[in-house]
Amino acid sequence: MQFYRIGLFVFSAIVAAVVLTGCEQVAEQAPNSALQVTPVGVVTLKSQALTLKKVLPGRISAFQIAEIRPQVSGIVESRLFTEGKQVEQGQALYQINPAIFKAQLAASEASVARAQASIASSKAKATRFSELLKIKAVSQQDFDEADAAYKQAKAELLTAKAQLQTAQINLDYSHVSSPISGQISKSSVTVGALVSTNQAMALATVTQLDPIYVDLTQSSNELTRVKKALASGLLTVDPATQMDVELIMEDGSIYPHKGTLQFSEVTVDPSTGSVTLRAKFPNPEKLLLPGMYARASIVEGVKSDAILAPQRGVSRNSKGEPTALVVSKNTRVESRVLKIDRSVGANWLVTEGLIAGDRLIVEGLQKIHPGAAVKVTEAHLLTSSSKNTVQ
Predict the structure, then answer these.
(1) How far is residue 194's CA from residue 67's CA, in Å, rounded to a whole number?
(2) CB 125 within 8 A of CB 177
């Protein structure tokens, strides 16, 4: 019995020691647990100057197009160009039989000679009658008739000269030339064909391809938004780049030559609600052809205090609003609702919700919640260029 009591006493002492030791360990661990924080990676946001661009769809159109039509009637005597080749301004393209126009020119030259002879005779007579009238050797009526004949002869000379000029123009028109430089199409007529003055069918078409136009379409709403931003100072104009245009070809490649913005239409197309902008590009290699589809990047303006937030640090709430978690001054997690303008590479352009100096959490997001204490380390991200952004 005494042995039993001694064993019970020893067992009780051991249990008490174990319990006391456990309580001490819990007491030691409790403060340490309360001090634990979650490590997160952050990006400290900075404001920067950002050139905003917009990609617009468009179609390529020729710089100049000239449809070649005859201005006199006749038989085509010869074709003086190679189809599909480059022709120069003033270069002869067709020769219409000039025989009848040469004859008309000769007749007009004769009419001028006759009128000149007539005017010499009538002038001399009017001069003589003027002297005789002074001594009353002729009547006033005789002098008036002689003077009128002289004036009529001068008018006939002017008419003859006008007819001569018309005959010369018609002869020149029988030599059909190109009004512009460019690439000529196939010929719609052959030698021996009868053509008529200002006929509906063009003999050929000359198209100037260098330089060349790109006609772009922009929503009137977008155009109004940009104008308001420029007027309010949210965007500024950089004269060095404002008129620059970059062309993206059908295969996605970048056209090697920069273009310049020429003008914007002053009316909105009621069927599409868009405005046409025209850009001019050099085209020495003839890579761009009229009718091709293309996209062009135009400069909207420069935002001097742009905030770019990495996309990996932005999520959506239940309402679909973009949100971000930032570290406050007391190293606690704080949730922000954002307003986003557009994407810029791997970043978002944020207009509201974040400011320069904010520490945006981009790593460890799954382990934290608003109000949690965190341990901050700077994350290393690949940053996109701050010079340009294209939507």
Answers:
(1) 18
(2) no
Is the dihedral angle over the CA atoms 338, 343, 345, 350 positive or is it negative? negative
The whole-model pTM stands at: 0.68
Pairwise CA distance, residues 364 & 376, whole Å:
10
The pLDDT value given to residue 206:
96
Q: In order of start, what are the domains of the chain with their CATH numbers?
A: 39-51+305-390 (2.40.420.20), 53-62+207-301 (2.40.30.170), 69-206 (2.40.50.100)
Contact 307, 256 (CB under 8 A): no
DSSP H or E stretch at residue 131: helix 99-134
Both tokens of 144, joined, read 């008036």
Report the distance separating Cα 320 and Cα 376, nearest Å.
28
The amino acid at 84:
G
User: Tokens at residue 16, please?
Assistant: 């008490």
Closest CA to 330 of 2, 31, 37, 9: 37
The fraction of the chain above a pLDDT of 90, given in percent, is 46
Q: Of 44, 41, 43, which Cα lies nearest the Cα of 375? A: 41
CB atoms within 10 A of CB 58: 23
Q: Give the tens place of pLDDT for each residue, 271-329.
A: 888 888 899 999 999 999 999 999 998 888 888 889 999 999 999 999 999 999 999 98
| Ramachandran angles phi, psi of 187, nearest 5° | -85, 140
For strands 47-68 and 388-390, give the pairing.
parallel
What is the spatial distance between Cα 230 and Cα 40, in angstroms, rounded to a whole number?
39
Torsion 208-210-211-213 (CA) sign: positive
Beta bridge mates, 195: 74
Residues contacting residue 44 through CB under 8 Å, at least 6 positions apart = 357, 358, 359, 360, 378
Sign of CA dihedral 170, 172, 177, 181: negative
CB 78 within 8 A of CB 187: no
Categorize the per-residue pLDDT at 12 as very low, low, confident or very high, splitting at 50, 70 and 90: low
**SS3 call for 185:** coil
Residue 280 makes CB contacts below 8 A (sequence gap 6+) with 63, 211, 212, 213, 214, 259, 260, 262
Give CA–CA dist 389/224, Å, rounded: 20
